[in-house]
Amino acid sequence: MPTTLDIQSRLSVFIPLYYAVWADAVLTPSEVKVVEDMIHTQSWLSDEERLRLLESIHPQNPPSTDTLKLWLEHIKALHPKQDATLFALGIQLAKQGGFFFNGEATQLEKAFLQVEQKLGWISRELVYNFVPELRQSVTQQQHTVASFKIEQLQNVLDGEHATLIKQVKTFLSDPEFAYLDTDNLTERREKVLHWCKLLARQGYGALAYPKEFGGKADMAAYFTVMETLSYHDLSMVVKFGVQFGLWGMSVYFLGTEKHHRQYLAKIGTLELPGCFAMTETGHGSNVRGIETTATYQHANRSFIIHTPHEIAQKEYIGNAALHGRMATVFAKMIIDGKDYGVAAFVVPLRDEKGNTLPGVTITDCGRKMGLNGVDNGKISFNQVEIPYDNLLDRFAGVDDDGKFTSPIASDNRRFFTMLGTLVGGRIGIPRSALSASKSALTIAIQYGDKRRQFGPEGAAEVPILNYRTHQRRLIPLLANAYALHFSLQYLTQRFVNRTEEEMQEIEALAAGLKAFATWNNTHTLQTARECCGGKGYLSENRIDDLKNDSDIYTTFEGDNTVLLQLVAKSRLTEFKQEFSNMNAFGILNYVASQAKTTITEMNPFAVRNTEDDHLLDFDFHLSAFKYRERDILTSAAKRLKRHLDSGMDSFDAFNVCQHHLVEAGMAHIERVVLEQFQQVAEKTKDEGCKKILQQLCQLFAINLLDQHKGWYLENGYMEGVKTKAIRKMLNQLCWDVRQEAVPLTQAFGIPDALLSAPIVVN
Fold first, then answer.
1. 125 lies in a domain?
2. How many domains does the chain fold into?
3. 121/194 same-domain check
4. Could you report the per-residue pLDDT of 529-580, keeping only the tens digit for each?
C-alpha cells in the first residue's frame, strides 16, 4: 500500500513540496535523489518520519489521485499570494494542524530553497500550480484594439478609385458570383467565361480603351478593377486579363486606327474572344528567339503564318483551347527572304461557330496545378494566309513597293519599344498577387486572433496570434502587403503618365516589382496556410485555391529570376551613363559624396548604434537600403569589367555574374518599395493612420535589415551588437503591431462573400 503524508502531522510542512514534485506524475532519478538528500539533512526528523518521507518519494509509491486533490484543496484554502513560497505554504499547513517550528524553521527553509534551485524551479511559477488565477502573463493580456479609424485607412488605400473598388466588390458579392465547387474542367471553364461576360457587360473590360470604342481611356481604373477582381476567383482574373489586357491591349498599343475601329469594341464586350500568342515551346522569356514566321507575299499583299517545327508552336496560350476566335501572334517578319525581326499579327483561329479554321491546329493543355478555369492551349500554323491589314503596324510595315518600313530605324530600339508598350501585364500580375496575399493574411490573422491554443498551466488558453513565433511569421508579411500596395500604385501612375524617355526605367521597375510581389505572395500564402493548421488546408477557406492559382505568377509575364537580371542590366546602363555624362569635376564630387557617406554611416559609433530612436529612424533605414543597393551595383559593375578586361566573352561574363545581378536588382527594388512607403506614411494627414503606417514602414525596413544582416556584417556597415538590436526591435515591432493586425486586415475591405467560408472558431 502506498504511504502518504498526513495533513494532521508536522510532516504536513512537506505537502506543498511533495505536491510540486508529483504534479506531473513522473519522478526522474535526479529528482528523487535531490529530495532524498534533503530529507537526510533534516536532523530534527525522527527515524519513523524520515522513513515515511522517503517512502512517499519512491517512484513506485506515488500518491493517489484523491490524495493529490486533497493536498491541493488544503493548499488552496490557504489563499496563497503571488509571492508565496513552498516553505511558507508548508509552515501555514503545519500551523493549522497545531504544529510549530522554531529552530528547525531556518534549516528547513534553506533546504526547500536548495531543492528548488537544484530542480530549476521558480517559486512564483509553482504557486500558479495551486492558484492558476494568480497568473497574469503579458501574453494572456494582449488583444485586438485599433488606434486608427478603419474606414479612414481604407480610404487611404483605395485613394481616388474608392467608388470604383466599392462597386466591383458589391458586384462580386452577388450570388451569381458564388464560388463553384467542381472538378469538372468544362463546367469550370464555362463558369469563368460566364463571369467574364458579366464583367464585360458592366464595361469593366473596356475601361482602358478609348471612349469611341466603349471605354473610358482610364488605364489606372482598369488595373484597379483587375486588382479588386483578384479577391475572387483567380481563373476569372487571368481570363479577364488575357481577353481585355493582353489581347485587347496588344491590338490597342501595337495596332493603328484601322485595327482599333475593327476590333476594340468587340473585344471590350467579349463579342470577339481572343488570345495573346507569344510564348513558344522552345522560347519562353526569349521573345526575340521565337521561330514562328510571317512571310510577306507582295503579289497579293498578304502574310503566310507558319510554324516550322513542333517546338516553335505557341504554347500555354490562354483562351486558346476553347473560346478564342482570334489571336495576336508574334512572329518573325520575313520579306524577300530577309528577317526583319519580331512583329505582331492578328490571326483568325475559329469561325463564329467555334470551328477551327484551315491550317490552324489547337490542342488543349489540359488540367493544370491551378487556374483550371482558363482554357490554355497549344497553337500550330500550317501556311495560314492572312491579309496585310492583319499586321499590327504601329511599329513595322511594308510599303507599296514591298519594302520594310518603320518609324524606328534601329532593330533593337524597335523591338524593345514594341515590348515596352505591353508592360501592363507586369503591372496587373503583381497587383493581382497582392490581392491574393491580402486575402490570405485576412484569413490567417483573423483566425489567429480567435483560435486559442495552449496557455499558462491551469489558466485559459491564449490566442495563437499572441505567440511571438506566430507574430514573427505573419506580421512582417502584413507590413510587406502595405509596402507593396503603395509601391504598385506608384508604378501604375508612372506607367499611366509615362514619357518615351522614361519607358526603360518603368519597364525595369515593373519587372522588379513583379518579381518582388509574386515571390512575396508565394511565401505569404504558404505561411498563412501553415499558420491556420489543418483548417487552412480545407478548400472552403480559400487558401488552397489562392496557392494553386497564383503559384504560376512567379513565371507569368517572365520568370522572376530573369526579370531581376533585366532590372540589374537597366541599373548598370544608368550607372554607366551617369559616369559617362560626368566631367572630371563631377566625378570628383561623386567620389567625395561616397567618401562622406562612408565617414557618416560607417564610423565606429554608427555601426554600433543600438538606440531605439536610431533603429526606428526613417533616414537610417533609407540610407542603409541605398548603401546596399549602390554597393552591390558597383561591385557587380567592377566584377563584370574585370572579367571583360581579362578577355572573357561578354556572354560568359554576365553568366558568371548572374547571381550578383539578381541581388543587385532586388536591392534596387527593395529601396524603391521602402522609399515609396515612407513617402506615403509621411504625407498621410489623418494622425491615427499616419502613426500605424509609420510603424508598418519601420517594420518593413527592420525586417529586411534583419534578413540582410549577413551582408551588412560582411561589409562593415553594422557590427554584431547592432544586428542583435535590430532583431530585438523586429520582435518588439511585431508585438506592438499584433494588437492592430486584425483592424489592418479589415482596412483591406474584403467582403466576407469573397473570402468564401472564412475560418470560424467557436
1. yes
2. 3
3. no
4. 999 998 888 888 899 999 999 999 999 888 999 999 999 988 888 766 654 5
Domain membership of residue 153 (yes or no) is: no
SS3 of 677-710: the string is: HHHHHHHCCCHHHHHHHHHHHHHHHHHHHHHCHH
Task: Tell me, yes or no, whether 701 lies in a domain.
Answer: yes
**Claim to verify: residue 84 and residue 233 sit in the same structural domain:** no
Which cell is 167 given?
Answer: 462597386
Q: What's the CA gap between 229 and 237, in Å, rounded? A: 6
Rounded Cα gap, residues 614 and 270, in angstroms? 56
Task: Report the distance separating Cα 189 and Cα 236, nearest Å.
Answer: 9
- Enumerate the H helices of 97-130 as residue ranges: 103-118, 123-130
d(CA 222, CA 628): 35
- Cα–Cα dist 526/534, whole Å: 13
- Are 328 and 365 members of one domain? yes
One-letter amino acid for residue 172 of the chain: L
State the Cα–Cα distance between residues 334 and 325, nearest whole angstrom.
25
pLDDT at 681 exceeding the cut of 90: yes
Per the CB < 8 A criterion, the answer to whether 231 and 172 are in contact is yes
Q: Is 738 part of a structural domain of the chain?
A: yes
In CATH, what number is assigned to the domain containing residue 723?
1.20.140.10
pTM of the model: 0.86
Cα distance between residue 38 and residue 45, in whole Å: 11
As a whole number of angstroms, the distance between CA 302 and CA 309 comes to: 22
Residues 6+ apart with CB under 8 A from 312: 280, 281, 282, 290, 291, 292
For residue 85, what are the domain limits? Answer: 10-134
Q: Which three cell numbers stand for residue 155?
A: 480610404
Q: What are the pLDDT digits (tens) for 412-463?
A: 788 877 877 778 889 999 999 999 999 999 999 999 998 878 766 666 778 8
